[in-house]
């Protein structure tokens, strides 16, 4: 059943533009049906793990000559993240995307995005991982620029340039591995590396992967594109970009390569730990001075991903568990915050926190969900963000990384302070719902 995660969204992307020429209301209906189907299979994939790891050989051809798709515990987690947030974003898009022209194009690109993300997650070889990574990236560039205004086009161009640089670096790393071990299947590469004597080339490839995927993740100092892309993109795409895209084509791919292919080494642990500490600290400090709601959330994405990378870098079972739990939690509350930001902008016509206020009575649902998500990202108990941060902090002190544990606590306090602004905004903006004409 693994190919269903690629076949369904690709079929949707093909059929939407064709049938929309006959029925214009077909696109949202079919895209949401696709999202619900993928979510159903994602939930069902949990039961597929009974009996251990599952491998699907495309056409019956076994590696290294054939293409394979792999399902393990990490794959199931990421499939659930991708398709849960994707399904909710598609439902949200039904009303939101009416403010834009050509909704059938939007749903086509969104379906391609889901196909690429699912393909990255289940790929068992580096070639197909890179192919699906590029499908995801191209769909992301187009969706960020979907509004076609100057701000959107500038942000998408910056995202495209830096994303292309990242893809080139990743491709170079894959080429070095291929030249050294003569295979692209991840399991075969792992076995061949253990027998390889070219340690320097493997380390060089690992450095390239860290830089390339660091750009995809938007870790500091590779973060320049993210604060522009988030505010420019439509709200559902912002939710996908922060909640799913950077985690799948960045965090997941890097974790898969480091732990399953190249191997986790002390120098890798040190790099991840310091990249995580720097990203979480600088990201939250840059967020303090932001008055654009979506730009504020963008810098917090950089900060919260720093938590995940730091926890993974600890290399302990508790640290890795805390990092993966925070990855899942962050996809939930950050996507909710971006969808709330879209609702506020849709209703008032502005994202400037200095001009917003007094919306609790007019938008009680948005106000309450924004409060819950804000408290969760700040790590307030008993919400989900508290538990994953607590596990990461405990793991840091257990690993005798006092600096990292202290940084996690400090960042959580600054995060709470920055989100208090969302609850104490001056009363100035009223509801100015834009025309849907």
Order of helices and strands: HHEEHHHHHHHHHHHHHH
Would you tell me the overall average pLDDT?
Answer: 84
Helix content: over 70%
Total number of helical segments? Answer: 16
Radius of gyration: 21 Å
Distance linking N and C termini = 43 Å
For the largest sheet, list the strands in their spatial order. 1-2
> What ranges have pLDDT less than 50 throughout 5 or more consecutive residues?
424-437
Please state roughly what percent of the residues sit in beta strands, choosing from under 5%, 5-15%, 15-25%, 25-35%, 35-45% or over 45%: under 5%
Number of strands: 2
By helix and strand content, what is the structural category? mainly alpha
Shape type: globular
Biggest sheet character: 2 strands, antiparallel
Name its key features.
437 residues, mainly alpha, globular, two-stranded antiparallel ribbon, 74% helix
Description:
The protein is an all-alpha fold. 74% of the residues lie in helices and 2% in strands. Strands 1-2 form a two-stranded antiparallel ribbon. The radius of gyration is 21 Å and the shape is globular. Mean pLDDT is 84; it is low at 424-437.
């Amino acid at each position: 059943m693994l190919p269903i995660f690629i076949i369904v969204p690709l079929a949707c992307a093909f059929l939407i533009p064709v049938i929309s020429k006959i029925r214009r209301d077909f696109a949202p209906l079919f895209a949401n049906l696709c999202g619900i189907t993928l979510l159903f299979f994602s939930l069902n994939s949990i039961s597929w793990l009974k009996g251990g790891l599952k491998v699907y050989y495309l056409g019956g051809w076994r590696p290294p000559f054939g293409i394979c798709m792999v399902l393990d515990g990490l794959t199931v987690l990421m499939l659930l993240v991708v398709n849960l947030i994707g399904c909710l974003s598609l439902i949200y898009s039904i009303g939101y995307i009416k403010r834009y022209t050509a909704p059938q194009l939007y749903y086509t690109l969104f379906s391609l995005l889901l196909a690429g993300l699912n393909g990255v997650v289940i790929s068992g070889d580096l070639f197909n991982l890179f192919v699906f990574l590029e499908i995801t990236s191209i769909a992301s560039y187009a969706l960020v620029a979907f509004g076609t205004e100057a701000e959107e086009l500038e942000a998408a161009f910056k995202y495209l340039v830096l994303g292309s640089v990242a893809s080139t670096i990743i491709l170079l790393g894959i080429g070095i591995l291929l030249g050294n071990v003569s295979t692209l299947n991840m399991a075969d590469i792992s076995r061949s590396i253990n027998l390889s004597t070219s340690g320097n080339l493997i380390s060089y490839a690992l450095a390239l992967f860290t830089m390339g995927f660091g750009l995809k993740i938007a870790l500091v100092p590779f973060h320049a594109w993210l604060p522009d892309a988030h505010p420019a993109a439509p709200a559902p795409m912002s939710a996908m970009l922060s909640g799913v895209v950077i985690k799948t084509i960045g965090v997941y791919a890097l974790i898969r390569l480091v732990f399953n292919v190249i191997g986790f080494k002390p120098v890798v642990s040190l790099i991840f730990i310091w990249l995580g500490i720097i990203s979480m600290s600088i990201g939250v400090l840059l967020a303090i001075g932001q008055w654009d709601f979506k730009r504020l959330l963008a810098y917090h994405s950089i900060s919260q991903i720093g938590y995940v990378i730091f926890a993974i870098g600890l290399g302990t079972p508790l640290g890795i568990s805390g990092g993966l739990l925070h990855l899942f939690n962050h996809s939930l509350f950050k996507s909710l915050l971006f969808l709330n930001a879209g609702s506020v902008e849709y209703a008032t016509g502005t994202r400037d926190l200095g001009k917003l206020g007094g919306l609790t009575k007019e938008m009680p649902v948005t106000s309450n969900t924004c409060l819950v998500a804000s408290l969760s990202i700040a790590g307030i108990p008993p919400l989900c963000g508290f538990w994953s941060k607590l596990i990461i902090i405990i793991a840091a002190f257990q690993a005798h990384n006092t600096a990292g544990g202290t940084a996690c606590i400090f960042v959580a306090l600054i995060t709470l302070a920055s989100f208090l602004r969302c609850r104490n905004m001056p009363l100035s903006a009223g509801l100015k719902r834009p025309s849907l004409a």
